[in-house]
Design goal:
The structure is a homodimer of 687-residue chains. Chain A has 687 residues and is an all-alpha fold. Helix content of chain A is 85%, strand content 0%. Chain A is built from 20 helices and no strands. Chain A has helices spanning 2-28, 35-76, 80-118, 123-155, 163-204, 216-252, 254-257, 259-282, 291-317, 326-350, 355-363, 368-381, 384-403, 409-422, 425-447, 452-499, 511-550, 553-557, 564-635, 645-681. In chain A, helix 2 (35-76) packs antiparallel against helix 5 (163-204), helix 2 (35-76) crosses helix 19 (564-635) and helix 4 (123-155) crosses helix 15 (425-447). The longest helix of chain A has 72 residues, at 564-635. The radius of gyration of chain A is 24 Å and the shape is globular. In chain A, 69% of the residues are buried. Chains A and B meet through helix 5, helix 12, helix 13, helix 16 and helix 17 of A and helix 5, helix 12, helix 13, helix 16 and helix 17 of B.
């Protein structure tokens, strides 16, 4: 039976990889545009590949060190039999996560030029190319995550009662790499962006993506390493961690559902992958149409098919265990509904058609201070509806689970909801990677001085990319917030297994849990501080490097090519140097808390860090998105348009929002899950 | 015995009030300066008194409505015997809090002119006057709080086992008024400040406090209604809420300490008041000296005498109950030490001699965006050390309490630490009120176009005032963070009393408590959003009103006096309109949570809201303070000085910081305690 169910997962993953291969072959056979375009694109590709190579070398060293730590933890706490398996799972997870990031970037830097070339003749074709480029990443990353979990599970013996607790090493490896990938990439992309803007647009008064600015190529490289590689690693570890967390909950229900309850999460996600493939293939660009229409339609198709698959999957795998299985279907629908609701709310807060962005644009008329005050107030406000939605979803899916009448059914209800939300992951990842590809293609068109009509086509696609990037951040945080509750319970189940005593109370009224909770919330703020600071420090180096080149009159006159590689090199060094300390801090701090204050205080730490992390990520992502779109709205001619005082104010707000939405915010998504998998894997030293 | 102990409290309060009366008489007999000064001062006084009158009328209506609600809650939950007493205690607390605010402001608007007059000849005398003006407020507010609690306790029957649970109505009344006073005053002061700066300094290019700017008087009024009246009400309710919370913990220890354990908090605070009087009298201004030296010396004197009194008080009241009473002394020392440590940390983060402010000033050279990114990053960072300090203090004082060997001793240890911190309250309040008085005196000197030497004397005092304001915010948040833990436990004791069942577990791992916690954290962010938004909305009205007046060339030429009263009126209306919704929201929201999700989820809500509130208040207060001082540092000539690009950038950062540090941040202090007293008073409907 195990093999049959897992074979389905493996089969779907192979189909998805096959589809990705076909899409890749088609894409690579497309036209690569003018020589000028190729020149820009080559520079981006070389820069991105150089960064990724150096970044992953650093991460590889950290991974090996940590693998040794994990081995030692298990070995010296009398669990020598698990030491090698857990450390190996960790390394495999880390390696898969790294490959996921590299693949996402490899595709992106090859798709951007083809999208730019297509934009010479057709915006529908440009959408098709960039969207399919995104789809390749989405399919590969999701199937690698599912395959990785499945194969690790089989390799570790497929013992339903014990193996899931070891497979968590895989998830931790994935989170570990994702943290550094997202943080390093996020610092790179925003340091280059902020640096390029400040020294180019503000100081020298030349337009964005101007060929004379030596930081522009670094900026375009940043889109790939931050948005593609970073988000790829982020969602890879999300699916891994959340699936394994749900599998651990399934262990408690083994008497009822057998191994089906444990494998349910990955089977459902593979069915979701199938639904996403259908959704992806339904997207077809049309000249002159709003690209968001086609992508939204694809999303709804994916969501509806996922819902049908979910109902079928529950009937197939869980109905034999409970007569009231229909309530699990409802719980799954709650998850799917939450994913749609989160996209709508994010759209409301970051799109210029609605009140928040309009208010920020209005406030720009009285200067940068009011622009920022208003934007920050909007950011804080964006916590309200999402928190209520998460709360309702948790309570509702828990209630559904309870109604099935099985013991621990409530918790499993939240797990089913999480899985419902995760089913659309491959499609969301597609939309997400589409964003930076379109952004890059726009940059290539701009820098190769293509005709205006080509630029206009790309601007439309670029704007859609900004929207999808904001939406997928909303999705990432929404799915994380449902998932963490089951990850907490997985942690508690793990501790109970280790101590042989029930552990189902985390008493916030006891002084050590309260202090743990306080320190957990603090860590989130401190981490955000370090991430933002890293951007401003690295941006400062970029500014200094560009200023030196601007002193050369030949570069400003456009007669000499600026030294792009020098700036890329400085940004790379800065990003790598500045990612290590915050990354190690968030790993070391909970370990210290756990060792000194023990597992219950650490649970308080973990839970309140998670709550604060979710809310702060919402604040940072949405305020950043709103500032960005307020600026874009003004650039369409509102409030005086480009060059007006309002525009200058809006540019300052946008610059502040950059590290918020693309460095600190997304890194917090990863942090939340890293804390959960970290505590799970290192549980033996906290008791 | 009751009477004897309480008589000491009452006697010390009467002495303090007597000292305040003497200081007031001396102060009022001083010279009121030039006619020009009096003209400015009169305008400030009239504006402040008009605002306070209208503000308290609104608050009075809200108070009466809520008193009826409280009566109904008790009446319809079968506790008719407590209904009238609790509602009455609420009204008395509200009235006392209002009086405290009015007194603080009454003194301040009379001291400012005398300080300005003294500055004509001596900076030592100017310090003496402004500091004593602050002392009058500090002494009156603290003694009113202690008298109010004592007399309410006696009036309600002085039954040690039951009365403390009713006296909490007093604390809730105080918090209720303080919330609106601080919020309304905070909106007023910063809307006027931001409005005046944006339209005066930025748009019209005229200096701060220029007589031609119709918003300057409103700005000076704001210092009084926000900083004096608001902070006065804030610290009044702090001492009330924290004393009563500690008294409730004392109830559990009645078998050990008798009534001494219950009255211990107010007796200690009255001894602290005595210590503060000695500290206050030790401060003597010296011409040419740094005013901070004299004030710091006074603070250390107060802290040392408090420590001695604390040891004596513990021996006297608690030693008969436990042989290990010395551990309670140590717990109290932890509290006193924490108050000193918080002042040092705040100083580090907001003073230009240290790394954080210097970094912000450096970052101003590359523009407003980097100034704000750096400042925000500093703000986030400032949560780290305070959170660790609070954590250590809680654990240490709890441990001390445990070492006394009495049951529940740990909790009482945290109560003693809180009381230790509260003992210096009157002195801190003195330093706090000194700030806006010095600020106002500076404004009067500026607007009456006094000679440069007088301005220079006032600038020095004004700078010291900025420091003391930042320090006392640090103290307020530090004491709140220790106190809330005992307030939670008071809430749990209250629930246990009402249900007749033990209530000592708040299980964060249960889904409803977790959702409660999530919503609690969210409420804090939402409230901050509304507070900041209220400032920007009100500031917009101020800007519009000033622009109309600036169109009059006679005003700009200085030949016609601008219509100050019109701007004061608009600011008043805006502040009152915008304070009601956020205020009612934070009251209604927990009530809804408590009614629908019951007391345990509400406890999770309360605790995590508190954690988030403490940290967010630190972020907002300290980033605001750091931006302010970075600007001031640049104005001393660093980074190009006044008028440079760096200065312009720093002004934008400072403007953003205004609503952070003077509206949202201080309102969060009150919110934290309001939530605690609210849940205590309304406990009957949450079961």
């Amino acid at each position: 039976m195990i093999d049959q169910v897992l074979l389905i997962v493996i089969a779907i993953c192979i189909i998805a990889l096959g589809l990705a291969a076909i899409l890749t072959r088609n894409l690579l056979s497309q036209d690569e545009g003018t020589p000028k375009m190729r020149e820009v694109s080559d520079a981006i590709r070389v820069g991105a590949e150089a960064f990724i190579k150096r970044q992953y070398s650093t991460i590889a060293v950290l991974t090996i060190v940590f693998a040794v730590v994990i081995f030692a933890v298990y070995y010296f706490t009398g669990q020598g039999d698990l030491a090698l398996a857990t450390a190996a799972a960790f390394i495999v997870g880390a390696a898969c996560s790294a490959i996921a990031g590299v693949v996402a970037m490899w595709i992106a830097v090859r798709t951007n030029i083809r999208t730019a070339a297509a934009a010479q003749t057709s915006d529908g074709k440009a959408l098709d190319f960039s969207f399919r480029g995104g789809a390749i990443s989405g399919l590969i990353i999701t199937s690698m995550s599912l395959l990785g979990v499945s194969l690790t599970y089989i390799a570790l013996g497929a013992d339903p009662m014990h193996t899931p607790f070891v497979v968590i090493g895989f998830a931790f490896g994935a989170s570990f790499v994702a943290l550094f990938a997202q943080l390093g990439g996020g610092i790179y992309t925003k340091a280059a962006d902020v640096g390029a803007d400040l020294v180019g647009k503000v100081e020298a008064g030349i337009p964005e993506d101007d060929v004379r600015n030596p930081a522009t190529i670094a900026d375009l490289v940043g889109d790939n390493v931050g948005d593609c590689a970073g988000r790829g690693a982020d969602l890879f570890e999300s699916t891994a961690a959340e699936n394994i967390g749900a599998m651990i909950l399934g262990v408690a229900l083994f008497p009822i559902f057998g191994v089906n309850g444990i494998l349910f999460p990955i089977v459902m996600c593979s069915l979701g992958l199938l639904a996403s493939m259908i959704g992806i293939l339904s997207v077809k660009g049309k000249d002159g149409a709003d690209p968001m229409d086609a992508m939204n339609r694809g999303y709804y198709i994916t969501a509806i098919i996922s819902a049908v698959f979910l109902a079928g999957g529950v009937y197939w795998l869980l109905a034999p265990g409970t007569a009231n299985w229909i309530y699990f279907v409802l719980a799954g629908f709650v998850g799917i509904a939450l994913s749609v609701a989160f996209l709508r709310v994010t759209l409301y807060y970051t799109d210029h058609h609605y009140r928040p962005v309009m208010e920020i644009a209005d406030a720009s008329e009285t200067g940068a201070a009011t622009n920022i005050i208003t934007g920050f107030s909007v950011g804080l406000e964006t916590t309200a509806i999402p928190a209520v939605l998460i709360g309702i979803s948790l309570l509702l899916s828990y209630w559904c689970g309870t109604m099935t009448g099985i013991p621990n059914g409530g918790l499993y209800g939240t797990a089913v909801a999480t899985i419902g939300m995760l089913m659309v992951c491959a499609y969301v990842l597609t939309m997400d990677t589409f964003g930076p590809i379109a952004d890059n293609a726009g940059g290539i068109v701009e820098m190769s001085q293509a005709p205006d009509e080509v630029r206009n086509r790309m601007d439309k696609l670029d704007a859609a990319g900004n929207t999808t990037k904001a939406l997928t951040k909303g999705y990432a945080i929404g799915s994380a917030s449902l998932a963490v509750f089951l990850l907490f319970n997985a942690y508690m189940a793990d501790i109970a297994k280790l101590t042989g005593k029930a552990f189902d109370v985390v008493n916030l009224a006891s002084v050590d849990v309260f202090v743990g909770a306080l320190l957990g919330a603090m860590l989130v703020f401190l981490f955000a501080s370090l991430a933002i600071r890293a951007v401003s420090k690295t941006a400062q180096s970029v500014i200094d490097a560009v200023r030196i080149q601007f002193k050369n009159p030949a570069i400003m006159a456009g007669t000499q090519k600026p030294d792009y590689a020098a700036v890329i090199d400085i940004t790379t060094q800065g990003a790598l140097r500045n990612m290590v300390v915050p990354g190690l801090l968030v790993i070391a701090f909970p370990v210290v808390i756990g060792i000194t204050m023990k597992y219950e205080a650490l649970a308080g730490f973990l839970m309140v860090a998670t709550i604060t992390g979710i809310l702060l990520a919402l604040i940072l992502n949405n305020s950043g998105g709103a500032w960005d779109n307020a600026k874009k709205f003004i650039e369409t001619g509102a409030h005086g348009g480009k060059g007006s005082e309002a525009h200058k104010a809006a540019v300052i707000g946008d610059t502040l929002g950059d590290p918020f939405k693309d460095t600190a915010g997304p890194s917090l998504h990863v942090l939340i899950k890293l804390l959960a998998t970290l505590t799970l894997v290192l549980a033996p030293i906290f008791i």
